[in-house]
Each structure stands twice: as C-alpha cells, then as structure tokens.
Sequence to fold (270 residues):
Amino acid sequence: MKSFIHLICDYAPGDLAWSEVYSAMMARLPADASVHFTSVGSFDTIATGFVVAQLSMADKDLRPENMVVFANCAPRRDKKEARSNNAGEGLVYAMTKSGVRVLAVNSGYSMSFVRDDLAELWEVDCADEGSQFRSRDFFPRALERVVAGDESLRTSRLNPSEVIRDYPEEVIGYIDSFGNLKTTIRAGDAITQTLNPGDRLRVRIGTVLRTATVATGSFNVMEGDLAFAPGSSGHDRRFWEFFQRGGSAAADFGHPPVGSNILIEHHERM
Fold:
C-alpha cells in the first residue's frame, strides 16, 4: 500500500539542510511514497506539537489510510550543560488511538498536544549522538523502518504521561499564513465557558493591548474587526483563535512569536 508521510520540521523550504534531509529520506523510502512538508519556526516545539496533533488526529475520511507523521524539531534544550558527541533528544515511536503512526524527536512540546490520544509510545533503535546532522545521517533510516512496518525498531515501552510534558495553556500555539493566531485556549476551558458571541474583550499579548469581539466564526464580524472565536484546529475540542477579517491579527498584535502569553484583562458582556 502506498505510504503518505507528513514531515514536520524547523527547516525552511529551500534551505540546504532541508534539501539534504529530503534527499536522504527519498533514498530510503519506497518509490511510490508521497511526502508533504510543513515548516515551523526554528526550535519551535510548540508549533511542532500543535501540527503533529492536528495532522495525526484527523478523522479517517480526512487523511490517507497509510499515513505516517514524522516530526523533527530538536533544539537540544533538554540539557543546559555542554553535550558530548552531539547528543540530542531521542526519537520516539507512537501509535494514536485511531491507528496513525508518529515518529518524532521527543523535544519540548513536540508530542504534548497528541499525548492523551496515544495508544502506545516507544523508545526506538536509533542513535541520538554521533552526528551534528542526525536528521540527515540517522533519522531517514528510522523513518524507513516505520514505513516498512519493522516492529524491531521499537525497544522500551514508555508511559506518555511520564515522558511527555503538558502543553502550555493560554499561549499562541501556531500562526498561519493569514496571520491568524491559533491559541492553546480550547472550547470548554474556564475562559471560553464564560464567553458569549458579541462580548468585548481587552486582550494583551506581549506589550500590545487590543480589543476583540467574541464571534462564532470567521465571517460574522465586520471587515477589519479583530475577533476571538473557535478555530478550525483542535478536533473535538476546538482551539480558539484571534483573527482579523480582511487583515492580519498577527500584524495587529505586533507579530508576537509562538509561545507568547495571552492575557484577557477585561471581559465586557454584551
């Protein structure tokens, strides 16, 4: 069966590093395998984890049957001291409850958003040191084995709650190409339970303070208005997002980075 691989990494499209990684992967994958690339910011494990969950938890009718999600963002920030032999965070293999295979560097929040949807989690037989460029030199072989269904890749079984941290709450989780700020505030959270369409919010992100209107979707506000509404990400518990109809919420807030804290300072019910 033809394989489809979602590759998520912090290399920019067209960068030399990306080209080398892609070449090394294609040298090992089956000739009929398809690869789709999603780029996140350098060392951005929050966005990495957000994307991993959104893609791996998709409904069956919205994804290819034989899909693998491979997430490669390894900032080597799990230890502050100097590293020996270019060691870095290790790879893990996971299977979601719906049967999607995930291979990922367990760095920062890269697995946090999908943690509670995992049926199993394993350490894998792959070197985590010995190369400055593990993504090119070691990881393609591990991905090849996952795609081939080689279960000998799995070594020790892991408890997700022990080795994967909670995702950060009330921060920016992902910024899309339209400038929409996808947050880690979800439907059913304490904040969103108190909101009704039309309510006015005073919101601070970083040093920027703005007023936003609570909405139910992207098009039930006036052109140019800043709104806060359930977004398209998060599946059964949607993540809320800030958007500006006809504009960019990211620009309106001064282009805050992913991970920026969100503070709702005032809530005026209409």
Summary: DSSP finds seven helices and 14 strands in the chain. Confidence is low (pLDDT under 50) at residues 76-88. Helices lie at 16-26, 45-56, 134-137, 139-147, 160-163, 190-193, 249-252. The domain at 4-163 is CATH 3.40.50.10790 (Rossmann fold).
